[in-house]
Write a structure and sequence with these properties.
341 residues, 2 domains, globular, Quinone Oxidoreductase, Chain A, domain 1, Rossmann fold, 6-stranded parallel sheet, single chain, alpha/beta
């Protein structure tokens, strides 16, 4: 089979490998769609995220969906031919944190596309059935892959806890930010403020119903004018930059809540202390997602969340390096690039 391996920074190679043999408790999945996440770019560009280093050739890709080819004996949840979304976080289910209902914080967590576990940018992958979610008949593999960033957005929303009629700002309108704007729209919050430096992404947020602002503006003043002089109830940072962290703190009201989703390349969290302290802010940091796939599937199936407009680029496995370069550079109006193994 063909697989795409990262041999070092910006060194992606398509290689021929033996077909994987599933373990007794694993299904075999033919991968049909993989979307490139900006956290993949950290490995592509730097070979690491924080202290997690890719020091052996690694198959990236944690946002993916595929077709079930084989199922383990005795499993009645899957059938050959099922199109499934793949939960990349493989938790143990037994440690203290899993038992407390936080599998995303599992002490022994493995995550597809993060060392030491290979991800989805290959033709076939063995996977445990409990982490495979069958898709409804009308959903596509691309939509299945994009359920992962939708899950991240849902988890951030759960941490933010806005109420109907509250005001929300989304700082950073990449795929997760644009999904957060959609969630905000159906959740009944107003106003929805979107902060984004790239004009085409601001336009996308505005089309979804947000008041779109650029970071070059006096954000605190603009947001205050939209919220009766107070600031938003909740600010969700989804940009993955250090300035965005500070922007979120500055535009939220006293006693408000800030949720941090993005991963800055500096691996630092910095906010002006007197702003955070004097406002008495609650700050939450999102660790990926948890238990979101069933809800995500329902939202898409019911037409409440639209994933297809996020896809701007489609490329075969042999051209995956171009997908990574485009996403890294924010080039060609990219929002989501899909790779088809």
């Amino acid at each position: 089979m063909k697989a795409l391996r990262l041999f070092g920074p910006r060194d992606l190679r398509v290689v021929e490998e033996a077909m994987p043999t599933p373990a007794a408790d694993e299904a075999l999945v033919r991968v049909r769609a993989v979307s490139v996440c900006h956290s993949d770019i950290h490995y592509y560009r730097d070979g690491r995220i924080g202290d997690t280093v890719s020091d052996t050739p690694l198959v990236l890709g944690h946002e993916f969906a595929g077709e079930v080819v084989e199922v383990p004996r005795g499993d009645d949840t899957l059938h050959p031919g099922d199109l499934v979304a793949v939960e990349p976080a493989v938790s143990c289910g037994r440690c203290r944190y899993c038992r407390e209902g936080n599998p995303n914080l599992c002490q022994y967590l493995l995550f597809a596309g993060v060392p030491p576990m290979d991800g989805g940018l290959r033709e076939y992958i063995p996977y445990r059935p409990e982490f495979l979610f069958p898709l409804p008949a009308r959903m596509t593999a691309e939509q299945g892959a994009l359920l992962e960033p939708l899950g991240v957005a849902l988890h951030a929303w759960d941490l933010a806890k806005p109420r109907v009629g509250h005001s929300v700002a989304v700082v950073g309108c990449g795929p997760i930010g644009l999904l957060l704007v959609q969630i905000a729209r159906i959740a009944g919050v107003t106003p929805i403020v979107a902060v984004e430096p790239l004009a085409y992404r601001r336009d996308a947020a505005a089309e979804l119903g947000a008041t779109a602002l650029t970071p070059n503006e006096d954000l605190a003043e603009r947001v205050a004018a939209l919220t009766g002089g107070h600031g938003v109830d909740v600010a969700i940072e989804a940009a993955g930059t250090m300035p965005a962290q500070e922007e979120a703190a500055r535009i939220v009201k006293r006693g408000g809540r800030v949720v941090l989703v993005g991963i800055p390349p500096e691996d630092e969290l910095v906010m002006t202390h007197h702003i955070v302290r004097r406002k008495g802010l609650t700050i939450k940091v999102a660790r990926r997602m948890k238990l979101t796939y069933p809800r995500a599937i329902t939202l898409v199936r019911q037409g409440m969340i639209h994933l297809d407009p996020l896809v701007t680029h489609r490329l075969p496995l042999e051209e995956a390096d171009r997908a990574f370069r485009v996403v890294e550079a924010y080039a060609e109006g990219v929002v989501k690039a899909i790779v088809t193994p």
